[in-house]
Design goal:
Elements (H helix, E strand, L loop, with lengths): L4 E4 L10 H7 L5 H28 L5 H15 L5 H10 L9 H10 L3 E6 L3 H11 L7 E4 L10 H11 L6 E5 L2 H10 L2 E5 L15 E3 L5 H7 L1
Length: 228
């Protein structure tokens, strides 16, 4: 059965989450941040994800923006940064994350071929709206789905249920794309066709299922979707 919909995770998949720290570190007067920004960015993302998993398990749900702030606070302390102004600037830049360079053409190609395109993200609706607007990709998206509608973070199955409810599709109709190996793996268990966008060349996660496809970036998504 041909693919009807291509659904994307947002942060790290369509939008470059390291950009906030990297862009600020390149500015004059940011010597302290420049020395540690790769660690800060990595720690920030890691804690952001870890806190979503723990909150999904315990049921202590809060908006993704709050998780994002908590993750940054941990990362700044771990890097020895105690600067409230720096914190506020980094958080402001998180609303202006650029899309990866191949994203506009990739989404435009999918839409030209008549496929449904959407985001399915842990992000809060206002965060996602800001990211989509800043990147200028809203015209190629049919929907932006946030876990806030179900009150639990991925990889809870009820999150993946949102796709079928929104588009009246079966799991086998959907190609799900994520830069998070665990997300792609659990989506595969759910029944989606899956792609792990493994930009960093990381090992495969040891989980009950594996993503069906692994790509270095998003360039090959249209051809893959057409082949399924």
């Amino acid at each position: 059965m041909p693919i009807k919909a291509c659904v994307f995770d947002a942060y790290g998949t369509l939008f470059d989450v390291a950009a906030a720290a990297r862009v600020l570190a390149e500015q004059p007067g940011q010597t302290e941040l420049a020395a540690v920004w790769p660690k800060l960015a990595a720690d920030w993302r890691a804690k952001q994800l870890q806190y979503t998993w723990l909150r999904a398990v315990t049921g202590d749900h809060i908006p993704f923006w709050d998780v994002t702030k908590d993750g940054l606070d941990w990362a700044m302390e771990a890097s020895g940064l105690d600067d409230p102004e720096l914190r506020e600037t980094l958080l402001a830049l998180y609303w202006e994350l650029p899309a990866y360079r191949e994203v506009p053409e990739m989404l435009a190609t999918l839409k030209a071929r008549g496929l449904i395109t959407a985001i399915l993200s842990n992000g809060s609706p206002d965060m996602l709206e800001g990211a989509v607007d800043f990147a200028g990709v809203g015209g190629w998206l049919d929907a932006v789905l946030s876990v806030e509608d179900v009150g639990v973070f991925k990889p809870a199955r009820v999150v993946y249920d949102m796709v079928g409810k929104r588009f009246e599709t079966e799991p086998g109709d959907v190609l799900f794309v994520s830069s998070n190996g665990w997300d792609a793996a659990f989506a595969a268990s759910y029944g989606f066709h899956t792609v792990w966008v493994n930009r960093a060349g990381e090992p495969m996660d040891r989980l009950p299922a594996e993503p069906a496809h692994v790509l270095d970036d998003l360039t090959g998504i249209p051809d893959l979707a057409r082949s399924l």
